[in-house]
Amino acid sequence: MLQETIARVRAEIEAADLSTAEQLDQFRIAYTGRKGQLADLFDQLKTVEPADRRAVGQELNQLKQLAQARFDERQQQLEAATSNAPADPTFDYTLPPVPQALGTRHPLSLVREEIVRILARIGFNVAEGPEIEDDWHNFTALNFPENHPARDMQDTFFVKNVAAGPQDAGLGPKAPASYLLRTHTSPVQVRVMQAQKPPIRSIMPGRVYRNEAISARAHMMFHQVEALFIDENVSFADLKQTVYYFVQELFGDDVQVRFRPSFFPFTEPSAEIDITCLICKGKGCNICKGTGWVEIGGAGMVDPAVLEQSGIDPERYSGYAWGMGIERITMLKYQIKDLRLFTENDLRFLRQFESLL
Ligand code: PHE
């Protein structure tokens, strides 16, 4: 009995018309599905004489494989056909494509990202802070004494009548009355030190503002990256080695670095970092003013008073900080002789960076 049914079902399966997706679905329900005829036949296997059960079982298995194979093959064909079908049959798919007008990344963004990548490789993470900063973070916590001429080193834009806003969070003990556009990224150092415990290894890229006349070398708005490393036993040698590594990764092995003694209220000792001028290559130009060297940033060991202001024990920890201008570095890397190009949005300039995307 059961064998006869198997033979009939086999004939049906072999002959089934699977032209359409709907027929294929019917086929699945009728035969291979959980409530299909095959499942039913397997259930009936227990009614077969024990002596024949093995042979009938094998026959059923073969039938099941046949049904599944027919189903799979047809399903693949139908899927391939639908995915290749043109969505719009009236559209001429042999037309050449319309070129897509892609924008380019700004050179300053490209260089900032490269700086982040280079320093991320040696363990620095990225921290950010507000551009409207309070006087305490921008100056006082960084050891600029009140009413001290050191504050004039950075021609500050003060902000009038700023209502105390969310950027007040984390204000230092001497909450200030005045706000300003941050003149450097160093206040982010203070914020990071207030918020985290050593070891700290962060870089802080961002926009800064100074009341300066706009020229080929200076702007009232530009970008800096600060690097801060605080741990036990950090020394000036660590600072120098990191700067050497950084400069060589960014500019190549031929570039030389020198440290010149300098002064910053928040570092002691302090230095300015110069590299050999890549624009004039020794011939003298308006960027290096004929010296062959060009300054790329300031650096030093974080002054213990700054550590203490930010809640870090200066007896136990030491650290270095260094800050540099992204515009200056981009100018050196890509031989750009006028800083104003960065903000003029001249497409002839910006498109030159297309290939660097
Ligand atoms: N903040 C300094 C400036 O803008 C640069 C600097 C950063 C110096 C970190 C020392 C350490 O001039």
TrEMBL record:
<dbReference type="Pfam" id="PF02912">
    <property type="entry name" value="Phe_tRNA-synt_N"/>
</dbReference>
<dbReference type="InterPro" id="IPR002319">
    <property type="entry name" value="Phenylalanyl-tRNA_Synthase"/>
</dbReference>
<comment type="subunit">
    <text>Tetramer of two alpha and two beta subunits.</text>
</comment>
<dbReference type="InterPro" id="IPR006195">
    <property type="entry name" value="aa-tRNA-synth_II"/>
</dbReference>
<dbReference type="InterPro" id="IPR004188">
    <property type="entry name" value="Phe-tRNA_ligase_II_N"/>
</dbReference>
<dbReference type="GO" id="GO:0005737">
    <property type="term" value="C:cytoplasm"/>
</dbReference>
<protein>
    <recommendedName>
        <fullName>Phenylalanine--tRNA ligase alpha subunit</fullName>
        <ecNumber>6.1.1.20</ecNumber>
    </recommendedName>
</protein>
<feature type="binding site">
    <location>
        <position position="268"/>
    </location>
    <ligand>
        <name>Mg(2+)</name>
    </ligand>
</feature>
<keyword id="KW-0479">Metal-binding</keyword>
<comment type="similarity">
    <text>Belongs to the class-II aminoacyl-tRNA synthetase family. Phe-tRNA synthetase alpha subunit type 1 subfamily.</text>
</comment>
<keyword id="KW-0547">Nucleotide-binding</keyword>
<dbReference type="GO" id="GO:0000049">
    <property type="term" value="F:tRNA binding"/>
</dbReference>
<keyword id="KW-0436">Ligase</keyword>
<dbReference type="InterPro" id="IPR010978">
    <property type="entry name" value="tRNA-bd_arm"/>
</dbReference>
<keyword id="KW-0030">Aminoacyl-tRNA synthetase</keyword>
<keyword id="KW-0460">Magnesium</keyword>
<dbReference type="GO" id="GO:0004826">
    <property type="term" value="F:phenylalanine-tRNA ligase activity"/>
</dbReference>
<keyword id="KW-0648">Protein biosynthesis</keyword>
<keyword id="KW-0963">Cytoplasm</keyword>
<feature type="domain" description="Aminoacyl-transfer RNA synthetases class-II family profile">
    <location>
        <begin position="111"/>
        <end position="352"/>
    </location>
</feature>
<dbReference type="InterPro" id="IPR045864">
    <property type="entry name" value="aa-tRNA-synth_II/BPL/LPL"/>
</dbReference>
<dbReference type="InterPro" id="IPR004529">
    <property type="entry name" value="Phe-tRNA-synth_IIc_asu"/>
</dbReference>
<keyword id="KW-0067">ATP-binding</keyword>
<dbReference type="GO" id="GO:0000287">
    <property type="term" value="F:magnesium ion binding"/>
</dbReference>
<dbReference type="GO" id="GO:0006432">
    <property type="term" value="P:phenylalanyl-tRNA aminoacylation"/>
</dbReference>
<dbReference type="Pfam" id="PF01409">
    <property type="entry name" value="tRNA-synt_2d"/>
</dbReference>
<dbReference type="GO" id="GO:0005524">
    <property type="term" value="F:ATP binding"/>
</dbReference>
<dbReference type="InterPro" id="IPR022911">
    <property type="entry name" value="Phe_tRNA_ligase_alpha1_bac"/>
</dbReference>
